[in-house]
């Protein structure tokens, strides 16, 4: 084997190891972000205790809702008083129905990994009048419309969203969660698997036979790996062995 071939084999081997290490770090960062995101979503969507729920009856229909004070308390607990803010974009009497107050509120949250997310909510409140037709408390109606809009914005982050969802939607989510719980292939292993398959295509019949003997000795007779059963260590060993077979005489060790 020439010095150039040996140098090239060493370069290929180093590139493979470097790429595998990079993929491993990228995957670990991605998993940490996913875990943190899942933890945040769990805290946001946690059902409220039954004792804080309120019931509003309209036309024979009972609607369960959460007071805005409880929504604010949850956001303070999760994000801190400086980690979120709300902005009243608009709050006014409706042009088509002056007896109705409409509000547009923008909710801004700062996540734990430095991102800022905004959601808009729209709410309304009907103006209450006395029997004589006088407005009871217009300021209170404006406050109610803003509170309603704030809760609608918070709902988009998952806060008390369960109260607005149908039984059918909740059943579908359970089914989707079961599907998501099925085993998934590690992206880093999938990348190494693709690299191994490309490398093995360059081997002739004799080299492929040698690769099979190597695996039998390396794995103590275990079945050949599949995409679902492969590990980072086994993929690296097979890729390095492919490189050795393509460049006979190169020294590559397997831990």
Short description:
This protein has 255 residues and is an alpha+beta fold. It has helices at residues 3-45, 68-79, 138-155, 167-180, 187-200, 205-218, 232-246; strands spanning 54-58, 61-65, 84-93, 100-110, 116-126.
Which range does the strand content fall in? 15-25%
Provide a count of the helices.
Answer: 7
Biggest sheet descriptor: 3 strands, antiparallel
Q: Which strand order do you get reading across the main beta sheet? A: 3-4-5
Distance between the termini: 24 Å
What spatial form do the alpha-carbon principal axes imply? rod-shaped
Percent of residues in helices: 40-55%
Structural class: alpha+beta
Poorly predicted residue ranges: 168-174, 250-255
Note the main attributes of this structure.
255 residues, alpha+beta, Enolase-like, domain 1, 2 domains, three-stranded antiparallel β-sheet, two-stranded antiparallel sheet, 5 strands, disordered C terminus
Description:
With 255 residues, this protein is α+β, with helices and mostly antiparallel strands. The chain has two domains: 1-48 and 167-255, no CATH class; 52-159, DNA repair protein Rad52/59/22 (Enolase-like, domain 1, 2-Layer Sandwich). It is built from seven helices and five strands. Strand 1 (54-58) and strand 2 (61-65) form a beta hairpin. The relative contact order is 0.13.
